Amino acid sequence: MDVKTLYTLITIADRGSFAEAAAALGLSLPAVSMQMRGLEEELGTSLFDRGRRPPVLTDSGLVLTHRARELIAHWESMSESLKRDASGGLLKLGAVHTCVSGVLPLALKHMQQMGHRVDIHLTTGLSHDLEQAVFHRQLDAAIVTEPGTPREDLEFFPFIDESLMVITHQSTDPATDQEILEQTPYIRFNRSARVGNLIQQELVRRDITVRSVMEIDTLEGVVAMVANGLGSSIIPSRAVEGEFPPSIRAVPFGNPPLTRRLGVLVPRNNPRAHLSRFLIDALRAVSVRPAPTKAGEPRPRPARNR
C-alpha cells in the first residue's frame, strides 16, 4: 500500500466516482480502477459495492477512507514539500427553492473565500423529496425545513430559524396580520412544500379564513405578485438584507411570529461528510439570525405539527 493509492481512494470518496477522481488526478479511468483492485486484493476485502452505479464505498471502504485521511494529514504535516495539490471534492447538494435565492449563494461565496475547493451539483425541490434523495444516497446533503420525524440514519444540522411574515402591498389599509389576510386576496405559497403545509396548519389553528386567488411554488413569484398589488401572502423571511421591494409591507405572522427551522440534512457515515461540514459552517457564518444549537436554548415560537 502506497501513499498515491491512498490519495486515489480519498479522491474517489470526495468526488463521488472513479471517473471524477480520474479527471481530478489526471489519470486514466483504468489506472484508477487498477489501483483500487490492487488495494482490495492487498487488504483481502471489498472496498466498493460495484453492484451500484457509480460504485459506492462499503463499510470497510468507509473505515479505510477515514484512516487514510488521518494518515495523509500526518504525512503532509511532516513537510510542506510533501503536500499534494488538493483536488477538492464534489458535493451533490439539494436545497429548497426559498433558500437558493437567499442564504445559499452567500454561503457558497463564503466557502470560496475560506479556500474550500468544493464543486457543487445543485438540485432544487421540496423538503420531503430532498429528504428521500438524501436517504437513498442520491444526494450528499440537502438544505430543508426541519423534518417532523427524525430518521436514525440521517442527521439534521440547523443553521437558522426564519420568521414567517405576512406580506402585502403598501396601499393595503388593514393593520394586523389577520385583518390583512382576511380582507385581501390571498396568494398561497405551494401547499405541497413543507413550509406551505405549516402555514396552512397555522391558518386553521387560528381560524383565519382566506380567499385564495392563486397558488405559486416559488418565493420570487409570490413576492412579484404581492409587489404588484395582486394580493397578500405568507412567506419565510430570508436572511438577506433588502429582501422585499419597496412596494411591499411586511408584518410578522403571529405574536410571537411563527418560525420554520432550516438546516442541512446529511446521511450518517457519508464519505463526503467533511464537505457537508464546510457548507454547514458557511451557512451558520452568513445567516443573520443563527438558530440555537444547544438543547434548551430559547427560540421563537416554532411551527407545530411538522
User: What is the count of helical runs?
Assistant: 11
As a percent range, the share of strand residues is 15-25%
Output the radius of gyration: 23 Å
Helicity range: 25-40%
Low-confidence stretches: 289-300
Topology as a string of helices (H) and strands (E):
HHHEEHEHHEHEEHEHEHEEEH
E-strand count = 11
SS class? alpha/beta
Q: Separation of termini?
A: 49 Å
Output mean pLDDT: 83
The main β sheet shows up as: 7 strands, mixed
Tell me, briefly, the overall form: elongated
Would you give an account of this structure?
With 306 residues, the chain is of the alpha/beta class. It has eleven helices and eleven strands. The protein has helices at 3-15, 18-25, 29-43, 59-77, 97-100, 103-113, 127-135, 177-183, 194-205, 219-227, 273-286, and strands spanning 48-49, 56-57, 89-96, 118-125, 141-145, 154-169, 185-189, 211-216, 233-236, 248-252, 259-267. Strand 1 (48-49) and strand 2 form a beta hairpin.
Give the structure's gist in a few sentences.
This protein has 306 residues and is of the alpha/beta class. Helix content is 40%, strand content 23%.
